[in-house]
């Protein structure tokens, strides 16, 4: 019998807004309904995606279970480098092996056994109970066949544990929890996993046929693993033996792509770099001082040189007016000027769009014109403070959208083509939007500032949604020292599916991000469907999307799936799912199916189906041993950051981390004999230290002083991939050795040894620290610095946003950025230091005395001091 219809999940859009179905909503103190960390986006499609450089895990950590196709994951073409300064270096050789080796690729995990359930004999007709066909449970089932997978590449799904605890009370403990990280945009190889036909779906719940389904060989009927209903296959699954069914991709692989070829765009060109042919419109701030403008011009010149010849580009500048540059003029820079004090009216847009000017053009025809336009930009000359200069950013983006929507012409050997969507607008901003629609007053002291800011917020959000509706992503790259009023600009990027990134200047990091923003691919019309066994309930989703209207998309009578309308389908994005047991689980396994529907860059409709089976257990020890500390930490961190909306809430969330540690120790740890202390579970040895990094790092700690920067980091983290999220929580520490090799060490201040150089990767920032003794030797320090910088750039080769890279010497004022991100382990007793930082044992007594004397006293507790203050004994280091 088909299982009864599950109750509504009770999700809602926005932060803490009441559920769409309040009668069936789940009220929990530590969870809120589905969170829209970005608004809906029908962005530029993708397939295949760009190559992504993945961060490396420490050799000592447990590797997450990677759910990916049997033959691995493919990657696309690398991101092109800047061709003129400032830009990233081009590497010609890989790093040499480390003296104490660290992994240069993610460690190979042990895959979950993926097996195809047995097919029932053709002589066995289905049984019926109350009119519903059931497969005979008495029939012998052959042994499951373990299928080894090459899963060293990026995962599509990461679960916080490879086992599901049967006991509801312990499994639903809010302090640890259970969940998964879903990366909808991960790529799989084109091969047997690509299916160009209509999928077989359960007529009751809508789930897809998969490798875990039981099949009647004689009739080709298959049983759904989600609702247990029996379905037909139009005799496609009729086969003499179950081995013959393994030739069908959906019955042999846990992840398949159903692709329906199509072409929705006139002028579509199916070539390898067609992803790059989608237009990019640059919207550039004119209110820059000369030093900033010079850096910006260098980055812009390098940017256009990095674009493929088929790329389309448009250039708009804004100040008090909006200038739309015309590529039809070959000898000089020419622009049509529109007022910026109000939204463009239809008449002015009609004259622009239907005129003779060419505002979007392919690079092979407009490269020289683009360089000429950038060289013609002039610095702001009036004696007005940066924050007070008039900038009509809102009107400029409106005009950019109008040009994109067309009709607009491009020049291609004298032939006019009409352009479709799939566009990216990149705003290069040096200050706030202070003029025209969506603007705020120059001064915070304006008597009506709060109301005007609220109005601007709503206007920008509406503009972002309008961009999303037209398959356009708006990225805002800010730079300089002038505050840009992030609360006003963030809604524009967020609701369109783009990002807002802050930079110190318009130099190297800005130039790299400009390239990567334009070259990263994304799918449009994205929809994520989540189906689970009846025992499992999804309680919260955090990521770049919002709940879809279920009644508008479901064609199945008992479809209880959770549907998320995705803002975009990009490789760098991730959804965090929190799950609970509805009751004590009786079965030996539970099933999860994730379906990602989107239109790719070739305008084909893709339905990516990922089906996973996890075993259940009664053993708490076995469950804890299956927990992946890093994934569990990121799930906890995303739930925590969601509630840390400002610095005041961040302080409260630091306290919640403390309570979480105590609760895990109480529920899963052991009592220390003859003491009131609890011992933290040894199976979760990495979890408390990772949470300590979260507590004191830039996401929750006091390292980041400005609220704008904290807001940008928070929004980036809530949507970020697992790899970037992990680095943003816990920095990776690499010590340079003689000969250019590196050793990976714990991120403790004990790594600050004066005769060495250290690289610290903290996600959005990379720090290179040169010890005082090393710095005095010019030759050695130059070689070490070069090696460290090469390592830093290789580690983040395709990371978006590209991190800023800062290098400094021991004792300098900038060194505080580095020191504040390391755990102050120098305060611990020697035996504790050696246990958690074994590299100390290689130092001589003289070196250890010198190291100890180099530290300054301050009040921040070490990890051991912090966890013991919670009446918890720290686990032994792994």
Automatic annotation (TrEMBL):
| Subcellular localization, as worded in the UniProt entry | Cytoplasmic vesicle, COPII-coated vesicle membrane; Endoplasmic reticulum membrane
Q: Where is the Zinc finger Sec23/Sec24-type domain?
A: 201-237
Q: How does it sit in the membrane?
A: Peripheral membrane protein
Annotated region Disordered: the residues are: 1-150
Q: Where is the signal peptide?
A: none
Low complexity: bias regions: 114-126, 133-143
Q: Which residues form the Sec23/Sec24 trunk domain?
A: 283-507
Query: Where's the Sec23/Sec24 helical domain?
Result: 630-726
Q: Which GO terms describe its cellular component?
A: COPII vesicle coat; endoplasmic reticulum exit site; endoplasmic reticulum membrane
Which InterPro entries does the annotation name? ADF-H/Gelsolin-like_dom_sf, Beta-sandwich_Sec23_24, Gelsolin-like_dom_sf, Sec23, Sec23/24_helical_dom, Sec23/24_helical_dom_sf, Sec23/24_trunk_dom, vWFA_dom_sf
Give the stretches traversing the membrane. Answer: none
Fetch the SUPFAM superfamilies from UniProt. beta-sandwich domain of Sec23/24, C-terminal, gelsolin-like domain of Sec23/24, Helical domain of Sec23/24, vWA-like, Zn-finger domain of Sec23/24
Ranges for the Sec23/Sec24 beta-sandwich domain? 524-617
Q: Give the UniProt record's GO annotations in the biological process aspect.
A: COPII-coated vesicle cargo loading; intracellular protein transport
Query: What Pfam families does UniProt report for this protein, alphabetically?
Result: Sec23_BS, Sec23_helical, Sec23_trunk, zf-Sec23_Sec24
| Predominant localisation class | membrane
Keyword DNA-binding, does the record have it? no
> What domain of life is recorded for the organism?
Eukaryota
Task: Identify the keywords attached in UniProt to this record, alphabetized.
Answer: Cytoplasm, Cytoplasmic vesicle, Endoplasmic reticulum, ER-Golgi transport, Membrane, Metal-binding, Protein transport, Transport, Zinc
**Function summary:** Component of the coat protein complex II (COPII) which promotes the formation of transport vesicles from the endoplasmic reticulum (ER). The coat has two main functions, the physical deformation of the endoplasmic reticulum membrane into vesicles and the selection of cargo molecules.
The record's similarity note reads: Belongs to the SEC23/SEC24 family. SEC23 subfamily.
The name under which this protein is listed is Protein transport protein SEC23
Query: From which source organism is this entry?
Result: Linum trigynum
